[in-house]
What does this fold into?
Amino acid sequence: MSLVSVWSDGYLAHDADWLVWAGLRLPSDEEADRAEIIRTELERAGVEMVPAEEHGRAPIEAVHLPDMIDYLETAHQRWVDSGYPDYPGVDLVVPYAFRHPGAFAAYASRLPTSRAAMAGVYCMDTATTIGPGTSLGARSAVNGALTAAGLVKDGARAAYAPVRPPGHHAGTSYFGGSCYLNSVAVAANWLASEGERPVAIVDIDAHHGNGTQEIFYERNDVHYHSIHVDPGEGWFPHWCGFAEETGTGDGAGANLNLPLAPGSDDGVFLEALDRICGDVASLRPSFMVVSLGVDAGAPDPESPLRVSNRGFAAVGERLASLGLPTVLVQEGGYNLEALGPDVMAVLAAFR
It folds into this structure.
């Protein structure tokens, strides 16, 4: 088989079913059905499926601040122990105050004793709530990505991990955007330590992977390439993802952002991908890691981009034509009817 998939029941563990956006409590669309839908499509297509393996904390700590990992592992239980599900009646961890660096620039900062205030130390928004299964879900997603990376390192042409929650908005010391641990970054960092040449990340999610960019922004052993809706048009993550962000220090020139105008269709999206494929081909990386978000699809509620199912098939063809050992890790995609077909349109090229 030229494609193998990696499954863990832990992908279903994250159960934070509501969020706060612009002061409103709304249902979350990052739901367990997303992984179940993709698994059904993989089984229907006869794609080989192997279990995710536990890799421990070391690969995660190579990317994320250990204190943040500790917090994610204990946040919900400490929230419950503090009585917040009873008063004020909030069952999920959600921040109400954020630790802005300007507030303590002139003196040392202490971590708050309040568990409600602690919720704003590492989280960057009110939309990324934490439930009892969030830590397991995030760790399972990392294990899935690392297992896929190991398969590719050992000779598989391509391996796909249909993980959730997604990860590309999570950075070294923060999480947000429905992301907790950056599975793609952990896998790419591990592969970079194993290969002789750089690793290329190609992020086709509709939103810029600000966390992935930040993690590798000063490095040249992992190159980040992203196509996404222009944050300057009012789209998450708002403050980064612009074309002038090209990396600094050793990473100068190793970061490529191609922001697209709302309403961009197959032609515009594929033109941007062609530029990225040319850049990746000239880099001659040891491995390619794909942040496989399909929320750029025309019916997706979280993006104004208009990529069709046929467009996603063309995306898969272009990426596969590079002939690189490839790890594909699921990111966004929130229209449940289009999710499975759009993911499989990309994956078909690697089969």
Observations:
- The radius of gyration is 19 Å.
- Residues 4-350 form a domain with the Arginase; Chain A fold (CATH 3.40.800.20).
- The chain has one domain: 4-350.
- The chain has a mean pLDDT of 97.
